[in-house]
Amino acid sequence: MIANNFFKALGDFFTNIIFPFYDKLRFADSWWLSNAFNFILVIIGFVAFYYWMNQLNKYSKGANL
To answer: What is the pTM of this model?
Structure first.
């Protein structure tokens, strides 16, 4: 019974607190506004990839000395 209440609370949290933001974006008239979150995630991914490649490059140069 406790697990059932936990999953109901979790579903209620996502439906009523987190997802209404995405519903507003889904019904926006602007394509750019609707995809703003995706652009932000892509930029974060590129920054993380660049950081990761720089760290690998530093490690590789240090190992060869």
So the answer is: 0.61
